[in-house]
Amino acid sequence: MRQATRDAVRRASRRAMSRAVSQAGERSAARSRADEGFAMSSPVALMSAAAVVLAGVAYLVTDPEVTEPDQVALAAGPAPVERKVVMEAMEVEPTIKRGEIYVSVYNNSNITGLAGTTAQRIVTAGWQVVGSDNWYGTIPATTIYYPEQLKDAAMLLSKDLGIERVLPAVDPMLMDRLTLILTSDFA
Key word Membrane present in the record (predicted)? Predict the structure, then answer.
């Protein structure tokens, strides 16, 4: 049925175009010099008009089943992608275990018992205090001294106590522990 309708439309459009072309040819041949002022449509314009008419007819005659929403093929969503996850072990610096780090506490101020009370505070924070005493010499401010291998532990102790001055250990300090020398600015 659809094929017969399409064939009929094609035949009708061919006839219309051939009529338009032949009429345009007859008119131009039959024209006399008296008709020179009369503007005649060109065959190209007539064919264009015929093509527009045929396109309108073809639009109206097309199969309505193709445009129905339930017949239109729906595009499927993207295919599920399986992502390959590779987990690699990262090197993590070892955490500082306060109880395994030795700390010596020294008082370099005129405040009696400053080293002992601070040592108790350090033990409460989880550090291992191995001694407290007086320091003889001049230290400008409360300082934590560390051997190179305990630098991270010294930074952690400085955070625990709120001490800003942290320096590498010097002789005669022992190189297996942190050395805390307190001055009157710490009290």
Answer: yes
